[in-house]
Specification:
Chain lengths: 179, 255
């Protein structure tokens, strides 16, 4: 067990390609760390091929599925790598889902409870651009396309709301680290 | 997209007005709960036939049956790939989707919904798998409480005998993911004892109507009819306001 050097870093944002790029930059020593991406379990891949008649999921349903995927990533990717003393960059992790949930009007208390099983990261990084999400990339982009058949303007508002939440979270963290 | 506070407030008022309007036949939600082999599906079918003969417009929803989530759960169960958390979260998602797509629309239209298993199934099984009751219960928020919950009580021995008389319990039904017992029948006996213990606590906490499922089928059915006729006159539970309001606000936002 080399857990002493183990480190969990989260990279959260609505811009999927920028999140991936930031995750790669976060690994200082490539041989000693790796990135855990969302949908490692394939849940959302399966969701995308579901029959349209099954009905569009709500924000809460999508968040429950995201949490199930995160539980899978923790079990198979994140915890084993940490146990081996490696740096794991979870991109995205909890903050992206919380930002989406808050923008969709889901109560903060429900979101806190939902992700109670996820260990807090040693370091949190945020990507604040929104490019890519509108075309359906990443969790927020895909979720906005899936949720209750929203129109383009409503999707844009939801993406903007999630990004604003992440920016606010980044500012809060910056203030905390200055103290 | 975010339902503003005013929209949610308006949706709450609308929900209360809709379900308490004395001039309208309001929707009713009746849940059948109990361990496997308790005979609740038989009773649910008899009850539905009787309700239809009495002129009720009946909709049935079963556990783990949403067209969207069920295939996701099934494929993962087949390869035994679910941890207790994943199992719990996926069933919670399936339940949420059915609440929004089947149960609430039917209740809004004044129909009678029979749920063959409700969220208490998730609670009993997940807690029997070692998860925290408080965490699991909150996953199901905003909570939608049935007008009546019938709990079909049987002993672990009876449940085991009835289930294994015709088939072998499957991996998750037998709780083999948490018992580490190789023999499905032995594992089932151990796991169902835990599930029943949780069910019995829940039946007390949530004021379920306990039906002695060791009685004859006919006696149980008569009892259910009588209890339903008494219970259906209960007023609408204001606890359900948030669940209905969120659904209404979501529909409004989509439009």
């Amino acid at each position: 067990m080399k857990a002493s050097k183990a480190k969990l870093v989260s990279v959260d944002g609505v811009d999927a390609s920028a999140v991936i790029a930031a995750a790669r930059r976060a690994i200082v020593r490539p041989g000693r760390g790796g990135v855990s991406h969302w949908d490692a379990s394939g849940i959302f891949q399966d969701l995308c091929v579901a029959d349209a008649e099954a009905g569009a999921p709500s924000a809460r349903t999508l968040l429950l599925l995201y949490a199930a995927d995160l539980a899978f990533r923790l079990r198979w990717e994140i915890r084993p790598a940490l146990a081996a003393g490696r740096t794991v960059v979870a991109a995205p992790y909890v903050d992206t889902a919380v930002a989406f949930g808050r923008a969709a009007g889901v109560p903060a208390g429900w979101l806190t409870n939902l992700f109670r099983f996820a260990p807090p990261p040693a370091e949190r990084r945020f990507v604040t651009t929104t490019r890519g999400a509108e075309s359906g990339d990443g969790f927020v982009g895909l979720a906005c396309q899936q949720v209750h058949g929203l129109g383009r303007r409503a999707r844009r508002r939801l993406i903007g709301g999630a990004a604003a939440h992440l920016r606010a979270e980044a500012r809060r963290q910056a203030r905390r680290s200055k103290r | 997209m975010r339902p503003p506070a005013a929209a949610l407030q308006a949706a709450r008022r609308s929900a209360r007005a809709h379900f308490t309007d004395p001039g309208k036949k309001r929707g009713l939600l009746v849940a059948f709960e109990g361990p496997d082999g308790s005979g609740k599906t038989t009773q649910r079918k008899l009850f539905k036939t009787w309700l239809k003969s009495e002129g009720y417009d009946v909709v049935t929803t079963k556990w783990n049956s949403s067209d969207l989530i069920k295939p996701i759960i099934r494929s993962r169960k087949q390869v035994r790939a679910l941890s207790p958390e994943e199992f719990s979260l996926l069933h919670g998602a399936d339940f949420r989707h059915r609440v929004e797509q089947i149960i609430l629309p039917a209740l809004w239209d004044g129909k009678l919904v029979i749920a063959d298993r409700f969220l208490f199934t998730g609670l009993a099984r997940d807690v029997a798998r070692g998860l925290d009751l408080d965490w699991v219960l909150k996953l199901y928020q905003p909570l939608l409480w049935p007008d009546l919950v019938f709990y079909f009580a049987v002993s672990p021995i009876t449940s085991g005998k009835r289930v294994t008389a015709t088939r072998m319990p499957n991996f998750y039904e037998a709780g083999q993911d948490v018992t580490d017992v190789e023999d499905p029948v032995e594992s089932y006996q151990r796991f169902i004892a835990r599930v029943i213990r949780e069910y019995e606590s829940l039946a007390l906490i949530f004021n379920m109507i306990t039906v002695d499922a060791e009685q004859s089928i006919g006696d149980q059915h008569r009892q259910i009819r009588e209890l339903f006729l008494e219970g259906q006159r209960r007023p609408w539970s204001a606890w359900n306001t948030d669940a209905v309001a969120e659904w209404l606000a979501g529909r409004g936002a989509a439009k």
